[in-house]
Amino acid sequence: MKIYRYGEIPLSTLLIRTIETSGVSDTVREIIDDVANRGDEALLDYARRFDGAALESLEVSQEEIDRAYESTDPAFIKTLETAAANIRAFHERQMEQGFRMAGPDGSFMGVKITPIEKVGLCVPGRTAAYPSTVLMTAIPAKIAGCRELVMVSPPGADGRQPDAILAAAKIAGVDRIFRTGGAQGVAALAYGTQSVPKVDKLVGPGSAFVAEAKRQVFGLVDIDMIAGPSEILVVADETCDPAYIAADLLSQAEHDVLASAVLITDSMALAEAVEKELSRQLALLPRKDIAGESLDKNGKIIVTDDLPSAVEAANALAPEHLELCMDDPLPYLALVRNAGSVFLGKSCPEALGDYLAGPNHTLPTCGAARFSSPLGVADFIKRTQYTYYTREALARVKDDIARFARKEGLEAHARSALIRFEEV
Amino acid sequence: MKIYRYGEIPLSTLLIRTIETSGVSDTVREIIDDVANRGDEALLDYARRFDGAALESLEVSQEEIDRAYESTDPAFIKTLETAAANIRAFHERQMEQGFRMAGPDGSFMGVKITPIEKVGLCVPGRTAAYPSTVLMTAIPAKIAGCRELVMVSPPGADGRQPDAILAAAKIAGVDRIFRTGGAQGVAALAYGTQSVPKVDKLVGPGSAFVAEAKRQVFGLVDIDMIAGPSEILVVADETCDPAYIAADLLSQAEHDVLASAVLITDSMALAEAVEKELSRQLALLPRKDIAGESLDKNGKIIVTDDLPSAVEAANALAPEHLELCMDDPLPYLALVRNAGSVFLGKSCPEALGDYLAGPNHTLPTCGAARFSSPLGVADFIKRTQYTYYTREALARVKDDIARFARKEGLEAHARSALIRFEEV
Fold first, then answer.
1. Are B352 and A291 inside 8 Å of each other by CB?
2. Which of residues A127 and A39 earns the better pLDDT score?
């Protein structure tokens, strides 16, 4: 992996920032139209065509879910439950309460929090069938109080989804599960079919097809975000163990050849040692081809004069994952303005956050951390404002309302206040 | 206005729900590309072409802003200040604090709140040059702590924006103001030009051109929402004064021929009396042509058997504005799940919320209240997660991380935890 001096290459080239879906846009539009028109029949056809599965039913029965749970290695069930408990504890802290405040003369106003009623969870299949995704998307929705959580995930050629996915869904409290994925799963949730209920919002990661389908149905339903390639920025000082840093970078690189793993350090010695460690550890990985290509193409090590400029680079890049590896990371956290999730200290590999710590792993990519947030309870609730005015309270402001409305040329607005006092 | 019995026409036809921008999509794309390429020069050309203004400079100077403020009727300045104080008080209650929670063995995690740095405000010109829009978009951003608020608004043929708009911007604390609007204003904020700074998020209403431009730049920057035609649903019982209800319906109808004003009541007597009042009051309005066409096309009165079914209809429609007009509205508010802003009681015309009460008037339309919220402080901040683990805390969960990672086929993830204990 190449070592650069800070400033030698433009910051903007450090992380991969393309979400390429234009090539699939027409195909996706056809699939969506087809599902909107033919419903279940279209879903069954796509299961045959894309998943090689001849399905008897689209919905997974409670018995099948229970059986999958029973068939799952009990040690893994325990791990799922530990993770779910931590995710729950963290997200419970995010629940919003709304407020009511008093105004003059007996008036009051406030905000009332209501869960979004029906939520769709898109869970990828095959090699990206991650039970962690099920926990991370379903648990915040459950805490928000959503009435129905509907999961879609593609079946294997045998018509079944992995046991671990179904077990995670059971633990997270998913209400209904369907055997369909990709663009057709998104379309089913957005339009509803004979079997699949139409939802108000859909969340979850996926291929370019899923990303493009979400973009196309946005408006008809709400979506969480369009996720781009995964990214990590590690900021480390000379006291760090190069083997740990290399392992963390590789854990990102193994995801995808488009993933970006970047180290910024103020120590040339650490930079060189990490570079060596990467070669050594890469050779030991089952996914060394993917990780190797990702490092080759997108991996970089940058050497700065000091750590604050490394954090400033992080703010400019707004990375999805940011590790601050040093003995005393809190002063640096105080400098962070733009990042999805920050991992602090030397015992905090990013993989801890992917699974166990509790914070969400569905995070803004492509610099979206400048303006958006990790998936959380806020994504599954909405605020409704309310205002109550007494006659006395309205009397105080009626002339202001009329003056404002007339300034804007809206006489009927003025009249709606004044008529209550027989002034029009 | 026609009176229907509940169930006689499908609920889904009650409010107008189309955001038509497809016809302008190519034009908007050309404008955006042009501004992205030519910057200020393109903006000056569009000011000439669309606004008929030969501009000397794009930015409005502080002297011009101060002069506009001085030239504004002092009574209106006072009204602006009253409104701003109420909007501030309501939105200050929305500020989020983040949290930190302790985990085992000295670990902790939390959420840190950071304002979005640069925000763009799109303020329409000509007949829709509403100072209220300036207050409603700028004040929440200011409370969130955004570093720079950049406003764009089209100039008149004399190259100037209305004094009231500039005065409102001064009161709300807008930092910079530019003489450009429409799709070109959106493009300038999204790409930046020699004069106009590139922002992270842009908010505000506008024409079909602005709506389509926001849609096209979404991703490059964040946007608030794509606003559709305005809607009001009034739920009223027999004790209401028909003149007040008619005035409230008209205040919505005068906005736009596409606006929808609908009354649902359990009283046929009220329905008939409101119908008569509408004709009487309509004739008195300066904008009677617009209001009349809106009522003709989109206005409806529905008579139900009881008020709870009227509220259920509101939940199904998720209206932008909902009035609950009766002596004791709170039990009905408790039933409301989907609405942007609710106005309670008989002395609470919707116009109160447009200007004075404090809650925001930028609201989800087209049924988006099922899944989205009024504009507020939450739109101008983002959450960053952080996690700190000690070596002891990591030791507790390292095996869970490894088990989870291996279940997902991600060995490098497992190794990043285990390597810290020399277990790989």
1. no
2. A39
Compute the 3-state secondary structure of chain B and give helix, strand, coil in percent, each to the nearest 5: 50, 15, 35
Q: Give the span between the Cα atoms of A100 and B75, in whole angstroms.
A: 30
The residue in chain A having the minimum alpha-carbon distance to the alpha carbon of residue B332 is A386
How far apart (Å, rounded) are the C-alpha atoms in residues A219 and A235?
Answer: 39
The distance in angstroms from the start CA to the end CA of chain A is 77
* Tens digit of each residue's pLDDT (9 = 90 or more) over B144-201: 999 999 999 999 999 999 999 999 999 999 999 999 999 999 999 999 999 999 999 9
Q: Residue B13: pLDDT band by 50, 70, 90 thresholds?
A: confident
- pLDDT for res B228: 83
Q: Which of B76, B384, B401 sits opposite A351 (nearest CB)?
A: B401
Whether the full predicted model's pTM is greater than 0.90, yes or no, is yes
| 3-state SS class at A367 | coil
Note whether A64 and A215 are within 8 A (CB).
Answer: no
Best to test chain B binding among A92, A109, A346 (most B CBs inside 10 Å): A109
Nearest chain B Cα to A328, which residue? B388
| Cα atoms found within 13 Å of the Cα of residue A344, Cβ hemisphere only | 23
Instruction: Evaluate whether A385 touches B374 at the Cβ level (below 8 Å).
Output: yes
Write out pLDDT tens, residues B260-287: 999 999 999 999 999 999 999 999 999 9
DSSP letters along B186-253, please? HHHHHH--SSSPP-SEEE----HHHHHHHHHHBTTBEE-----S-EEEEEE-TTS-HHHHHHHHHHHH
The answer to whether A180 and A210 are in contact (CB under 8 A) is no
Mutation site, A413, A420, A422, A423, interface B, largest B CB count within 10 A: A413
* Distance separating alpha carbons of residues B401 and A101, to the nearest angstrom: 45
* Mean pLDDT, range B128-134, rounded to an integer: 92
pLDDT at A10 over 80: yes
State the Cα–Cα distance between residues A135 and A360, nearest whole angstrom: 9
Instruction: Please indicate whether, in this complex, the C-beta atoms of A90 and B112 are within 8 angstroms of each other.
Output: no
The C-alpha atoms of residue A83 and residue A65 are separated, in whole angstroms, by: 19
Which residues in A lie closer than 8 A to residue B114 (C-beta atoms)? 336-338
Provide the 3-class DSSP secondary structure of residue A312.
helix
Longest dimension (CA), chain B: 85
Is residue A337 within 8 Å of A34, Cβ to Cβ? no
Residues forming beta bridges with residue A222, ordered by sequence position: A201
pLDDT of B18 > 80? The answer is: no
Task: Kindly state the average pLDDT of the residues B47-62.
Answer: 97
Considering only CB atoms, which chain B residues are within 8 Å of A405? 351, 354-355
| N-to-C CA span, chain B | 77
Phi-psi region of A366 (alpha: psi -120 to 50; beta: other; left: phi over 0): left
Token pair listed for B259? 């606006």
Q: Which residue has the tokens 């709870």?
A: B308
Looking at beta carbons, which residues of chain B come within 8 Å of A352?
387, 389, 394, 397, 401, 417
Task: Report H helices in A284-384.
Answer: 288-298, 307-317, 330-333, 350-355
Model ipTM? Answer: 0.96
Phi and psi at residue A247, to the nearest 5°: -65, -40
Q: Is A320 a catalytic residue?
A: yes
Give the β-pairing of A381-388 and A108-115: antiparallel
> For residues A266 and A312, what is the distance between their CA atoms, to the nearest angstrom?
13
Set of chain A residues whose Cβ sits within 8 Å of the Cβ of B109:
90, 357-359
- In sequence order, what are the beta bridge partners of A113? A383
Residue appearing with tokens 């796509």: A46
Instruction: State the Cα–Cα distance between residues B235 and B76, nearest whole angstrom.
Output: 33
Residue B202 pairs with which residues in a beta bridge?
B120, B223
Task: State yes or no: is B255 an active-site residue.
Answer: no
